[in-house]
Every structure is written in structure tokens, then in C-alpha cells.
Design brief:
The protein has 299 residues and is α+β, with helices and mostly antiparallel strands. The chain has five helices and twelve strands. Helix 2 runs antiparallel to helix 5.
């Protein structure tokens, strides 16, 4: 049983699909819109996903993306559309490479390189999926926000309770409890089930783009676990600095995926975090790595 998502499309998912349907301005120039969220800056996962869509629009369909490597340079302005400029670096027999620059107000806010490969058979191996509780029976976002007995701070409960295109079900809520409440695991490890909040069109490129969007969620926060802090803490200035994503296998993000995250090191006001994304069958479908700013503020 895969517990596939058959819910009617939510407004949040429809909006995400709409902002990923970029407007073509010229042969290798695209424009992306921002959702009406009221946020002070554009969500980094949105920029990653839109840049991936822009690059993919210039590559034949028989060459799926297998990796991207990106840098966030300036906060995105949610009031202004983002222009994506694609540079065709290489078109080889097996691999295709694209570089994408995201521009607002005449300045680059983000840049990424994306690599594509023809589908090939080869040697395979992978780690085992962590032995954690499945998504059935875990509280979803709205239930987390409504469960007054969880002890979660209000800002965190509001984050999980907000209507969003990606449904989240954390495996262990102790990470979000006040220090000492219920016991806090000292290791920087976090497991969360995620999927699109409703079924998506059967387009592999769209599923990869939505996974890219989701890959920026909760990851940086893991580096703060050993310090009893979170990105919701007003005494922490947090921001993604770079992002890398590898697609190992075809993915269906409208079915549950386990995002197993850990942070091996932090220092210099930066935290480094990794993620492995498994499908319900235990296949490793993607890997993620990110370094982000976790700077304690003076006030």
C-alpha cells in the first residue's frame, strides 16, 4: 500500500503549479511570479524550483535533471517577479549542462548550475531507509497547530498549521518542545514525511520541480537542534546560503516521502545539513546538502 494522494487539488497546490509555469520572455529568458504570502522575502525553495523549471525548458524531455548546485546571494523581493536567464553551457552525447541566473531589480539574487543525463542503466547501491514510524497516525500540520497539549511554541505551531502546497508530518515532535520538556535528543537528526498536499499532474519534470521546492523545508533548522534553538527563534538570524540536490531515481511527490535530515557540523555562524529522501518502498530517490547562516543576533 502506498497511501497515494487522491485529494482534490488544494488552492495552495494550484498556486504552486501556477508559479512554476514560467512565462517565456525570449528563447532563454523566463519570468516567474511570487505567491501572495505576505512574507518579507521569497522562499528559497521557490527560487530553486523555478530556476530548475527554466533550465529544463531548454533541454530535451529524454534528459531528466540529475543534479543542481546553487547559491543564494540576495533575499528575493516577494513584490517583484523574478527573471531567470538560462545559459547553455554544454550539450553532449550523454550530458547537458545549464547555468541559470535569477535577477531582480537589475541584480542577481541566485545562481545555479543544473546537469541533465540521458537515461542509462548501471551499477546500483544505497543505504537503508531509517526505521521510523510511517506517516499514518502522525499529526499533520493543522492537527499539530490545533493540539494544544503538544507544548510547541506558537510560532512553530502556526508554521505547521499554515495552508501550504507541501504536507508535513514530523516523526518526532520533541525537537520543537521547550528545552527539557519530554526530553530533547542531543543529536542533530530530524525525520519528516512530506508530500504534495494534493495529487499533481503526471509530469515527471513537475514532480522534480516540486521536490526541489520542498527540499529547502526544515533542513537548515536541523543544525540548531544541539543548541536548543530553531530558525523561529528571534535571536537567530537564519538564511540559506547554498543548496545542492541530486535526483537518483524517478520520484512521485504526491505520495509520501521520508526526508531524513542530519547536521554533522556547525561553525563560523554557519550550519551544514544533509538530507536523504526515500519513497515508501525504501528507495533513495534524492539527496540534499545545504549550508546556511545561523548567526546569533546581538539583541
Amino acid at each position: 500500500m502506498t497511501d497515494a494522494n487522491t485529494d482534490a487539488m488544494t488552492d495552495a497546490v494550484a498556486e504552486l503549479i501556477a508559479i512554476l509555469d514560467l512565462e517565456r520572455l525570449e528563447v532563454d529568458l523566463f519570468r516567474g511570479q511570487n505567491p501572495k504570502t505576505g512574507w518579507r522575502r521569497v522562499f528559497g525553495g521557490q527560487v530553486v524550483a523555478q530556476a530548475l523549471v527554466a533550465a529544463t525548458r531548454t533541454v530535451p524531455d529524454d534528459r531528466p535533471a540529475h543534479s543542481l548546485h546553487a547559491y543564494f546571494m540576495l533575499p528575493g523581493d516577494p513584490r517583484t517577479p523574478i527573471v531567470y536567464e538560462v545559459e547553455r553551457i554544454r550539450d553532449g552525447r550523454s550530458f547537458t549542462t545549464r547555468r541559470v541566473k535569477a535577477i531582480q531589480h537589475g541584480r542577481a539574487i541566485f545562481a545555479t548550475t543544473v546537469s541533465y543525463q540521458v537515461v542509462e542503466e548501471g551499477l546500483t547501491h544505497q543505504p537503508a531507509m531509517p526505521a521510523v514510524a510511517g506517516p499514518e497516525g502522525l499529526l499533520d500540520g493543522k492537527a499539530l497547530a490545533a493540539a494544544g497539549g503538544t507544548g510547541m511554541p506558537e510560532a512553530i505551531a502556526a508554521y505547521f498549521g499554515r495552508e501550504r502546497p507541501i504536507a508535513l508530518r514530523p516523526v518526532d515532535l520533541n525537537r520543537y518542545l521547550p528545552a527539557g520538556a519530554g526530553g530533547r535528543a542531543p543529536d542533530p537528526i530530524f525525520n519528516v514525511w512530506l508530500r504534495a498536499a494534493s495529487a499533481l499532474p503526471d509530469d515527471p519534470a513537475l514532480h522534480r520541480a516540486v521536490l526541489a521546492y520542498a527540499s529547502d523545508m526544515t533542513l537548515l533548522d536541523v543544525s540548531l537542534i544541539p543548541h536548543a534553538r530553531s530558525v523561529f527563534d528571534p535571536a537567530i538570524q537564519a538564511a540559506s546560503l547554498d543548496h545542492a540536490l541530486w535526483f537518483h531515481r524517478p520520484v512521485k511527490i504526491d505520495d509520501w516521502l521520508l526526508y531524513a535530515q542530519d547536521s554533522p557540523v556547525a561553525g563560523g555562524a554557519r550550519g551544514f545539513a544533509r538530507g536523504q529522501i526515500f519513497d515508501r518502498a525504501g528507495n533513495l530517490v534524492a539527496s540534499v546538502a545545504q549550508e546556511g547562516l545561523i548567526r546569533p543576533t546581538r539583541d
